[in-house]
Amino acid sequence: MALNVAVVGVTGVVGQEMLNCLEKRNFPLGEVKALASGRSAGKIIRFKGRDLAVAEATQKSFAGVDIALMAVEADQSREFSPAAAGAGAVVIDNSSAYRMDPDCPLVIPEVNPAAAARRPKGIIANPNCSTIIMNVPVWPLHRVNPVKRIIVSTYQAASGAGRPAMDELEATTRDWAAGRPVNPKVFPYQLAMNLFSHNSPIGDNGYNVEEMKMTGETRKIFSVPDLPVAATCVRVPVLRAHCESIALEFENPMRPEEASAILAKAPGVRLLDDRAANRSPQPLDAAGRDEVLVGRVREDISLPGRGLMLWAAGDQLLKGAALNAVQIAEILGEY
Questions:
Q1: Which residues are catalytic?
Q2: Which of 77, 151, 198, 224 is deepest in the core (most CB within 10 A)?
Q3: What is the pLDDT averaged over residues 227-240?
Q4: Which helix (H) or strand (E) holds 78?
């Protein structure tokens, strides 16, 4: 059955990737509405070999829409998502607006697809990109041997802050290489040839918003409300694709070989772990790929027997955002 789909924020980097995913995966499309802010109205974008005119998103834009993919900031989602749901669409929201709302499921299709069935507000939340990239490989291990604790450090690309941040990294890298002054505007600090703590506010507990997202969202997705999760999130001078160092404590013993065998068969995961060649996932490997790449599977020698460490890389714009949203749309008929 053909479905009418609206992409809100279609001119942004995530919105563009949503269109690319819809086309690449041959989603059963009827009408496609390309929606964005008023300043983008009238632009023409190419989709499936034809021109698609961008219209201004308003609360009245969703008549006849079956699925609304939101690729906008949280405040804009709060404006448009209830209107879309009220018009009869199922909303899949990539912002943080509804992730922790108890009446909005938070879904990674490889982890908790059945959660999509309960959506009293008509809104399904897409998790944070770092949360998705971590939990696609952690979940299949957790199903076999419950995880008691997660400590994660992220190495987050400029793509997480959108196209302006990616453009700034390219421009400031050229400035640095030419010996010109580097004057960041999107980020609070120079990212070229540098790294810094994630540029989200730090709370009273010393953790920034991005770090607390990973904690709260993982607990909700896993349905383990007291799961210990501690994150350190860092911006690195990489254009696209996030990496993560993940330390896991298990309830029962688990050997690296056992974990690798599980991961090799896990949906959405590709194992890339060649110790002899010292070859493990890099951002360049993950960019443009649907899977989360995993390597450096090894024992945590500070917790022998029940601790493992992993290294993961995933495309923040694809599996961390647009692809996950489109995958949710694909499973709606099943739940």
A1: 129, 242
A2: 77
A3: 98
A4: helix 74-86
